[in-house]
Specification:
Length: about 525
């Protein structure tokens, strides 16, 4: 949230990923949605856009600004999200009724989606627009998925003599992406909120990734196997279809088993990709100019109905792309249930698998998993190809960040604690100021000194209490912190609570760093 005396604006409003993503029925916003003046949406993915219909349901009256391609994408994803929520709520309600428990309501339904669609306000790339008094914005290419954007904002406060530029990276794509253009280079900013999904690791090169994919896929085809590809229907499905088109041209007889995109959403999404060819990479534009469709290899067909999906079970050899990408639902669950126990099945994981998902458990080596109420042995051959990620890796992120001036303060967001901390450390090693914020932390944009980032707001009551303490009190407090940290290191921590524990520890560390920075200012230089 960007907040001034004149307005409150959200940047993105999405669902959580992973094990908690379907536990939103008791969700509440930590603010009044009716007080929000606008939403700036970086891209359509549900972890960025998924709660906007709920925001509207709770009283939001403003506009949702996004690119034109994103505007078309969210229509598809919001409707699918509502459908999944309604199905989940109906299933859980049926279970609850047998136990005498109350009915489960979806976070929002189709009517809320239709209401949210009316709030969309598409904008063009690269044009500065004043959306509200004191707020100018510009959407720039992010290279992540079709329509994704970096958002530059210029924020001014009435009565203040300075304008602060805050840049929101959204999700950044690699600088050598296969489908989209590379992320736009931004060369100025006071604060930069930068994503860190892969802030602690590198992807394989595009050449190595393609070679690995082609070799593994060729081997699977030669075995006459059923090949399953859990895939996000936005970007990843189109990428795999493109890769299959390239592989098909290299095969001597160009012979492949039938290829299915088992997703009604996939039909509409692929049509949108084919519509916005101006946003695609040079290689894809060239293919379209030659009259070739990069998203339609020979033998390819869309699967729309559930009956058509079930019929694939009777085909011994096929390549099946189906959602969801993290195996948290969708038609891929049906295909895995029927094929995961077969040694000649190949499963290609071509995207990020969040903690707590079935996809993550499979990637981490689970020998048996529970799918749709049944225990299924894992005998299939699993392939993990992170090089297909639509996210920038550590070096891509650092390259993008390197173009900002030394004055820019980096706020590292959108990553698991380990990757966020690693990227913050890498940024510091490059000479930038960076930190990982705690949930609920506030940053005073007008206080442009380093402490504006490092020091969360302290209440006046706490300041009054702190004014009365002595040096002995401080030493006792530090001893208590050290003792508690030592106890926690010795304890066996409950891994199911890591998601709650780690942000609190990060917050504690941030506060200690802020306290140390204050102390360092008071120490004479000769000491």
């Amino acid at each position: 949230m960007i907040e001034t005396k004149a307005f409150k604006v959200l940047v993105d409003c999405g669902f959580y990923q992973g094990k908690d993503e379907q536990k939103h029925e008791d969700d509440v916003f930590p603010f009044n949605p009716a007080d929000i003046d606008a939403v700036l949406l970086t891209h359509a993915h549900i972890d960025h856009s998924g709660r906007i219909p709920f925001l509207v349901r709770q009283g939001f009256k403003g506009k949702v600004y996004c690119t034109f391609a994103t505007s078309e994408m969210v229509d598809i994803l919001w409707h699918d999200s509502a459908r999944l929520q309604m199905e989940e709520a109906a299933w859980r309600t049926k279970k609850n009724m047998r136990k005498g428990l109350p009915k489960v309501e979806p976070l929002y339904d189709e009517r809320d989606v239709e209401a949210a669609i009316k709030h969309k306000a598409p904008v063009s790339y690269d044009e500065i627009e004043e959306l509200l008094p004191g707020l100018k914005v510009r959407f720039r290419e992010a290279g992540h998925i079709l329509g994704s954007a970096i958002i530059e904002t210029w924020v001014s406060e009435e009565g203040a003599d300075k304008t602060v530029k805050v840049v929101f990276s959204g999700d950044l794509g690699p600088k050598d992406g296969a489908l989209e253009k590379p992320p736009a280079i931004i060369e100025d900013g006071d604060f930069v909120l930068i994503e860190s999904t892969y802030g602690d690791r590198l992807h394989k090169t595009p050449e190595d990734t393609r070679a690995e994919f082609q070799q593994a896929m060729t081997d699977a085809i030669r075995e006459g196997s059923k090949v399953l590809v859990p895939t996000f229907v936005v970007d990843r499905a189109q990428r795999i279809l493109y890769e299959l088109s390239l592989l098909q041209k290299k095969m001597p007889d160009k012979k492949m088993p039938p290829i299915f995109l088992d997703s009604p959403m996939g039909v509409k999404t692929t049509e949108i990709y084919s519509k916005y060819t101006n946003l695609l990479s040079k290689d894809l534009k060239d293919m379209f100019m030659r009259g070739e469709d990069p998203f339609a290899p020979d033998g390819f067909s869309f699967v729309r109905t559930s009956d058509e999906s079930k019929a694939i079970n009777d085909i011994d050899s096929a390549i099946v792309l189906a959602g969801s990408g993290m195996v948290t639902g969708g038609r891929i669950v049906h295909h895995l249930k029927h094929n995961l126990h077969k040694p000649n099945t190949h499963v290609f994981f071509v995207g990020y698998q969040a903690q707590g998902t079935l996809g993550r458990r499979l990637v981490d080596g689970a020998k048996e998993v529970r799918i749709a109420g049944e225990d299924v042995l894992v005998r299939a051959k699993l392939h993990t190809l992170n090089g297909f990620s639509a996210h920038a890796d550590r070096d891509d992120l650092l390259y993008w960040a390197s173009h900002f001036p030394a004055k820019a303060r980096f706020v590292v967001v959108h990553g698991e604690p380990k990757s966020a901390e690693a990227l913050a450390l890498s940024l510091k090693e490059k000479g930038h100021m960076a930190h990982v914020p705690a949930i609920g932390e506030e940053i005073d944009l007008l206080a442009l000194g380093q402490q504006a980032v490092l020091q969360p707001l302290v209440s006046p009551r706490l300041q009054e209490r702190a004014a009365a303490v002595s040096e002995d009190d401080m030493q006792l407090t530090l001893d208590a912190i050290l003792s508690k940290a030592g106890d926690m290191k010795k304890m066996r921590l409950d891994t199911s609570e890591f998601a709650k524990i780690v942000p609190l520890l990060i917050s504690a560390r941030t506060l200690l760093e802020a306290a140390d920075a204050v102390n360092q200012k008071k120490i004479p230089k000769e000491s």
